[in-house]
Amino acid sequence: MLTRRGVVGAAAVLAGVGAVSGRAQAVSLPEAPTTKTNTMQPPLIPSSGPDYQPVVTLNGWTLPWRMNGDWKEFHLVAEPVEREFAPGMTARLWGYNGQAPGPTIETVEGDKVRIFVTNKLPEHTTVHWHGMLLPNGMDGVGGLTQPHIEPGKTFVYEFVIQESGTFMYHPHSDEMVQMAMGMMGMFVVHPRDPKFRRVDRDFVFMMSAYAIDPGTSLPRVSEMTDFNMWTWNSRVFPGIDSLPVRLGDRMRVRMANLTMTNHPIHLHGHHFAMTCTDGGWVPESAQRPETTIDVPVGAIRAFDVIANNPGDWAFHCHKSHHTMNAMGHNTRNFIGAKQKALTKAIRSVVPDYMPMGSAGMAEMGAMEMPMPDNTLPMMTGFGQFGPIEMGGMFTVIKVREGLAPNDYRDPGPYKNPEGTVAYEFKGPTTEPARRS
Ligand SMILES: [Cu+2]
Question: Ligand 1 centroid vs 207 CA: distance in angstroms?
């Protein structure tokens, strides 16, 4: 028999469910902003609600939203897109709202969010909100927690954001193909307390890898290990934005990995601490000094650092093959080999034949060789002192005095103070004395 108390309790629970699902209000689709731009867009400064320092996405952008009552409404559109990896190479991918990866979604702890997902792909999809604590039916696993979203259909996800931190979104529907095609994006939740773990500059990017044969533009989606494009936000050096920081700023970088291998990400000139994962904030007592953070597959790592050392600091994956662009992996080691006689013989039948690598491969960094259409040199990019000989997952953190807050324009090369650059010894050189 229901007691009066029991009846009241049940009614309150029902009212609560109604308020959270809010289905009656989900009647009109919000606008789905779209962009083809591939340079870092200015941060979306919050104009209402709690104050926070918005993130910037390397070569990307944040998805605008609308308020509908107390619901924050977003509209993601899954669709085929074109993405330039760096000047000279464009890939045909799948993404969201005009770009791959999709726009970064930013919310605040406690927000009620409603995310409309429209499918303009040729096959079904879903969106999984990786790392977020939410009702099972909002988890986006096709077949398990919801029907797949068929082409042309729009689904609605509704949940209350329970925790601040760094998360991501990606399909859980033909997942191998859809992630290999570039479908993913960051989901950042700011703390409700504007002072909690606050930083002055907050950068985010996704790591993805592609196997795109030179001269083609579509990823080989069944490739498991032999990728030739290691990307940050589907860009490769020298196409990746630099990270400008004001000297003395507290800076955060949040990095998500949806490739098929781990990436040890290394920063020069500074010591930092890992402060956040996709499982939440790392307590201060558990932080330790690092210069490299390994980002496992299917995970997010964020570090905080005081940018107290002015200069142009390399920031890159420490797997040296991941800071290269398209290359064959069957190249033999010719270091020390005398190729002269062989070259002469080959040139008698192939006049343009060029021997490579008898002294290493550095010569490739400066060379402009004829290349197949739509690919990128293995090592490339120039700095103020010459070829940088990098590609892939490499960029530069530029620590400078006097940058304005929220100014993310590239400040150009660092002017090293006189007497602080490695220099050539011009005195007499002799053979070093060797122990006999
Ligand atoms: Cu790597």
Answer: 9
Q: Which of 210, 165, 172, 212 is nearest to 186 (CA)?
A: 165
Cα-based distances in Å from 430 to 162, 422, 433, 435: 68, 21, 9, 15
Q: What is the C-alpha to C-alpha distance for residues 308 and 328, in angstroms, rounded to an integer?
A: 40
Q: pTM of the full predicted structure? A: 0.87
Q: How many Å lie between the centroid of ligand 1 and the Cα of residue 392?
A: 9
Tell me how far the alpha carbon of residue 227 lies from the centroid of ligand 1, in angstroms.
11
Phi-psi region of 321 (alpha: psi -120 to 50; beta: other; left: phi over 0): alpha
Ligand 1 centre and the CA of 264: distance in Å? Answer: 6
Cis-peptide, bond into residue 238, ω within 30° of zero: yes
β-bridge mates for residue 254, sequence order: 204, 302
Is the pLDDT at 16 greater than 80, yes or no?
A: no
Q: Residue 28 has which token pair?
A: 């009109």
Mean pLDDT (whole number) for 214-235: 94
Rounded to 5, what percent of the chain is helix, strand, coil? 10, 35, 55
Give the Å distance between the CA of 319 and the centre of ligand 1: 5
d(CA 223, CA 393) in angstroms, rounded, equals 19
